[in-house]
Amino acid sequence: QFSQWIQTELADCPDPDELFAAAQERIMHLQPKTKQQTFVYGFDTLASYDALMMDRIRAQQDGKAVIFDWPWKTWNGMVRPLRSGLAGVIAAPDGVGKSSALEMIAEHWATKSNVVFVHLENDLDYTLDRRMCRHSRLPMSAIEDGTFTPDQHKRAQTAARQMENFAPRLHYFDASGKTMPEIIAELQVRKAEGVCDAVVMDYLNKVRPTRSQSKLFGEDGLGRQADNMEQFKSFAVRYKVPVLTATQMNKEGQMAGRQTRRNIRGSGEISEKSQLVIVMTRDVLERELTDIRGQVIAQAGEYSPVMKVRIDKQNRGKTGEFEQLYNGACFEIRDKSCANTST
Fewer CB under 10 Å: which end of the chain, C or N? Predict the structure, then answer.
């Protein structure tokens, strides 16, 4: 079947890059059977599970347990760590801060283990500029233009030394213009290399459709996203890694008021395949926001720095909501207890 298919495709003189991507997707279905055991007899589960629990206890006692928890106290108080084989999704409208959230989570996980950050929206230079801005708190203009004062240069050097805590284990994959089979193929290579213990992808809506998806789903972008999420989740299960991504809200999700996973674009297709769904929103201010000293933080008409975070689905924990603060100038999310504001 593959031979007949590729002969037909070659007869149409396809674009080489598109042919490669389509062939790669079909070849994945031709992989030989592995020795991985997928059927287990019930009488074998007792001994195997006992061994699993002993391994977990031993790892905790030896300080070798890797827990993919969260960079914020508020999240850790409500959200269970994302364990291997599970998928999480952050849903938010444009400009709310979902990319910053993914970047901070990836950096936090990289303090413990190897993480691959798949970026489809921002290029690597801009991503690293955002990282420096977040950890140095220098103006983005000074970072981009290279116009450091002596003091700012020292702050940049201090931030670089601090980032050594996670940077050697945080690996970047520029997947702009790539399809999900191409992304997964790259992740498989990095997993074999031993540098992919978790994956954070920014973000699902930016994945390019394959030719087969275009033929199958046509203009149905939601169907393509559901198929991509299914492939991403299957990778997590097969290779025993936690995966986290983000997606945009639909038109209703851009409005004020409580937002849930029903306002995610293709909500049913995406959220059903995720064990964790977090919805993040920020309201547009009707009047200016000031801090306790009376200094203006945001003007009327701007997005509020107060971020509403709703844990809308969690298979292993509770749901609920709380508030955090987003500092757009530093691409940083902080717990609300870290700062005081008033209106």
Answer: N
231 SS3 class: helix
Q: Give residue-wise pLDDT tens across range 170-201.
A: 999 999 999 999 999 999 999 999 999 999 99
Residue % of the chain over a pLDDT of 90: 57
Please provide the average confidence, as pLDDT, over all residues in the chain: 87
Q: Which residues of 175-212 are buried (b: 16+ CB within 10 A; e: fewer)?
A: beebbbbbbbbbbeebbeeeebbbbbbbbbbbbbbbbe
| Sheet of 306-314, strand order | 170-174, 115-119, 198-202, 243-248, 87-92, 276-281, 306-314, 320-327, 332-335
Arithmetic mean of pLDDT, 140-164? 96
> Which residues touch 253 (CB under 8 Å, ≥6 apart)?
91, 93, 259, 263, 264, 279, 281
CA 93, 332, 137, 159 dihedral sign is negative
User: Which residue, among 76, 72, 80, has the nearest Cα to 97 in the 3D structure?
Assistant: 72
Phi, psi angles (nearest 5°) of residue 112? -110, -35
Residue 341 confidence (pLDDT): 43
